[in-house]
Amino acid sequence: MAVAIPRRFISLPDLAEARGVAPAKYTQGLGAIEMAVADPSEDTVSLAAEAGRRALAAAQLDPDQLGLLVVGTETGVDHSKPVASFVHGLLELPRAMRVYDTQHACYGGTAGLAAAVEWIASGAAAGRSALVICSDIARYGLGTAGEPTQGAGAVAMVVTADPAMLAIDVGISGASSTHVHDFWRPLGHRVAEVDGHYSVQCYLDALAGAYRGWKDRAGVTSEQLARICYHVPFCKMAKKAHAQVWRCDLDDRQHGDPLATWDAAAEELAAARAFDTQVAPSLLACSRVGNIYTGSLYLALASLLDHDRTLAGQRIGLFSYGSGCTSEFFSGVVGRRVQDRIEALDLGGVLAAREQITIAEYEQIMAEVSPQPDSARPGFAFTGVRDHRRQYARS
Ligand code: HMG
C-alpha cells in the first residue's frame, strides 16, 4: 500500500471558528481534527499516480509483472478517458495489460479491488499482479453541513497471489444495495449534493445487510474479528457503524433465544469498549485527512496497520459503502510481512510533510481553477490543458 495526500491542510477548530460553530461539534461531534485541501494541481490523476508510484516502489515490483490497473474514483477528469489511462501513461506501465476505472461513489475502489482479487484467484492472472488505486477529492459547498467532512487523497494497493499485508478471504463477503438519493454529484457540478442525515441512515441500513451477509458466509461474528475498518466519511460515522454491528449481533442472538433477557446498559458499555479496541486505531489518519471517498476505508486500514503492529496472522473485517447505494462487508488475515510494508508506507512521514494553511487561504484555493504546481515538492502535478489535452509534470 501507499498513500498520497495534498500538500496542505486546515485545522477543524479554525474552520469551526470561521463558521461560528462550537469547535467541539467538529472535533467531538464529527471526530475530525484536520482536513486535507487539494489545489487544482493536485487532481485525482496526480494523487493516483503518486500513490501508484510509491506502492510499486514499496513492493519492489517490476512493472512488467502487472496485468491489471484499476482506478476506483468518483472524481473523474474526463467523461471518456479514465483516470487509470493517465496513470498508466505517467507511470510508463506496460502495454499488455487491462486499464480502466470503476465507479460507484465511495465503493468504486472496493469494486476495483474485488475485480483484482478475483482475477488472481481465478487463475486468469497467470502469475501477474494488479495495481488498484483509490483516488478522490471530496468537495461540498463552503458553509454547508458537509464542509467539515471534505478531504482528498489516494491509496494504492499492489494485489498479488502472495500478499504481504492482507490476505483477503476470497468469496466470503456480504453485499447490500438499494436505489437511494442520499448523496450524488450531477454532471458538471464541482461539489456534491447530499441529504446528510438520511445518508447516515442509508449507510447504517446497508451495513446491517452486508454484515449479516458476511456473517452467514463466514460462520462467525464481529467478536471473532481482531479489528474492523469501516468506510470513514467522518470518524464519528465509524462509531455509529460499530454500534450498528453490535446491535445486529445482539438482535440475532435475541432472535435465536427469545426468552433470554439482556442488560441494555451493559451491552452499550461493552459496545463502547469494543469500539476503543476494535476500531479507534484505524481512525487516526482519517481524523487528520478527512473523507477521501474511495480511499477512506483503505486509509483506515493503513492507519490501523501503522498504529497496531501486533496484528500479523489475525483476521480483520472491512466495510465499504458507496452512496446511491451499494456496500460490502468482507474480511482478511493480516500478513506476516506487514511490518516491512508499513514502514515503507511511512504514514507518519506523509502526514508530517504537509503545510497548515489559514481558512482565508483555504477559501481562496477552493475558488481557484488554474493549477499552480509547486515544483519544489516531489510528485506529479496537473499543469493545465493544452490543445484539449490535460498535461502533467513530475518533479
Ligand atoms: P450537521 O447536521 O451539521 O451536524 O451535519 P449534526 O447536528 O448532526 O451534529 C453532528 C454531531 O455533532 C452530532 O453527534 C451532534 O450531537 C454533535 P451525533 O448525535 O450524530 O452523535 N454535536 C456536538 N458535539 C459536541 N459538542 C457540540 C456539538 N454540537 C453538535 N457543541 C452531517 C452532520 C454528517 C449530516 C454533515 O456533516 C454531512 O452532511 N456530511 C456529508 C454526508 C456524509 O458524510 N454522510 C455519511 C454517510 S454517507 C457516506 O458515507 C458516503 C459518502 O462518503 C459519499 C460516497 O459514497 O461517495 C459521503
Protein model, in words:
- The chain has 395 residues and is α/β, with parallel strands linked by helices.
- It has a single domain (2-394), classed as Peroxisomal Thiolase, Chain A, domain 1.
- Helix content is 39%, strand content 24%.
- The chain contains 13 helices and 16 strands.
- The strands form five sheets. Strands 1-7-6-4-5 form a five-stranded mixed beta sheet, sandwiched between helices.
- A hairpin with an 8-residue loop joins strand 9 and strand 10.
- Helix 1 packs across helix 2 (23-30).
- It is globular and about 70 Å long.
Q: What is the CATH superfamily label?
A: Thiolase/Chalcone synthase
Ligand inventory: 3-hydroxy-3-methylglutaryl-coenzyme A
Distance between the termini: 22 Å
Topology, number of strands: 16
- Order of neighbouring strands in the sheet with most strands: 1-7-6-4-5
CATH class reads Alpha Beta
Question: What name is given to the CATH topology?
Answer: Peroxisomal Thiolase, Chain A, domain 1
Overall average pLDDT: 96
Secondary structure layout:
Blueprint: E1 2-4, E2 8-11, H1 12-19, H2 23-30, E3 34-37, H3 44-59, E4 66-72, H4 83-90, E5 98-102, H5 108-121, E6 129-138, E7 151-159, E8 166-177, E9 183-184, E10 193-194, H6 196-218, E11 227-230, H7 235-256, H8 264-278, H9 286-289, H10 296-307, E12 315-322, E13 326-334, H11 338-345, H12 347-352, E14 355-356, H13 359-367, E15 380-386, E16 389-394
Parallel strand pairs: 2-14, 4-5, 4-6, 11-12
Antiparallel strand pairs: 1-7, 2-3, 6-7, 8-13, 9-10, 12-13, 15-16
Helix pairs in contact: 1-2, 3-4, 6-7, 7-8
3-hydroxy-3-methylglutaryl-coenzyme A is lined by residues 22, 24-25, 28-30, 74, 105-106, 145-146, 149, 182-183, 194, 196-197, 199-200, 203, 231, 233-234, 236-237, 291, 293, 321-323.
